[in-house]
């Protein structure tokens, strides 16, 4: 309800684990909000730099053609992909870029 009351031009960010479950959560929240989300601290570079190989194969693999997370989803589908728990990073406020805002 809150998301529906805020203008579409205001970006919404989501920060989740960089693993298949984190992707699933991001996509679920995005569907529930009914608006585009922007990932925060969810990049292949961060996974490669700070992540580690998972102990087991992921049980859930997201598929989201056209998603803002497409590159991250493709990376996580690779056998040598590293996963990263969000708690392993210090939280920071997203940097707002005008290009992330969209006209309503």
TrEMBL record:
Pfam families, alphabetically?
Answer: JetD_C
Instruction: Give the top-rank taxon of the lineage listed in the UniProt record for this protein.
Output: Bacteria
Domain Wadjet protein JetD C-terminal as annotated: residue spans: 10-89
What InterPro entries does UniProt report for this protein, alphabetically?
JetD_C
Instruction: Please identify the protein, giving its name as recorded.
Output: DUF2220 family protein
Source taxonomy? Bacteria, Pseudomonadati, Pseudomonadota, Alphaproteobacteria, Hyphomicrobiales
């Amino acid at each position: 309800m809150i998301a529906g009351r805020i203008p579409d031009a205001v970006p919404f960010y989501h920060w989740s684990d960089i693993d298949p479950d984190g992707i699933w959560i991001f996509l679920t929240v995005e569907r529930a909000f009914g608006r585009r989300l922007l990932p925060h601290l969810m990049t292949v570079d961060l996974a490669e730099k700070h992540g580690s190989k998972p102990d087991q194969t992921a049980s859930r693999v997201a598929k989201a053609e056209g998603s803002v997370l497409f590159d991250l989803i493709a990376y996580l589908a690779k056998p040598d992909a590293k996963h990263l728990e969000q708690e392993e990073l210090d939280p920071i406020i997203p940097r707002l870029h005008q290009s992330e805002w969209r006209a309503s």
